[in-house]
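From the methods appendix. Each design record in this collection lists the tokenized structure first, followed by the designed amino acid sequence. Records were kept in a plain field format so they could be parsed without special tools. The example shown here is representative of the layout used throughout.

RECORD:
FOLD TOKENS (101 positions):
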């Protein structure tokens, strides 16, 4: 993957005034994926909203890494359930339309 399409962790941490180790810990917990290229560490831009959310949880709300891991797991589960609910509602609408015609 081209590093131009990736976010350099060093630069990201400098901009957000956080330690590089925080991003490494997120990777260790499996919350984000770090990409190593040419002796530099990056993460994919699609992970940016989640990383920024975890920064706020940790630095603003003082939630430790275990808490962030639990919150991320629960949020992922809620999102999957919402997708299932939307899919089920769409199927129900199709059946309702079919039987009311």
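DESIGN:
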């Amino acid at each position: 993957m081209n590093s131009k399409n990736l976010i350099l962790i060093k630069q990201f941490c400098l901009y957000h005034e956080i330690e590089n180790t925080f991003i490494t810990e997120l990777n260790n917990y499996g919350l984000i994926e770090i990409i190593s290229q040419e002796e530099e560490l990056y993460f994919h831009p699609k992970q940016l909203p989640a990383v920024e959310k975890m920064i706020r949880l940790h630095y603003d709300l003082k939630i430790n890494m275990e808490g962030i891991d639990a919150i991320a797991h629960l949020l992922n589960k809620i999102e999957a359930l919402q997708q299932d609910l939307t899919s089920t509602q769409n199927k129900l609408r199709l059946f309702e339309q079919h039987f009311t015609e």
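APPENDIX NOTE: DSSP finds four helices and three strands in the chain.
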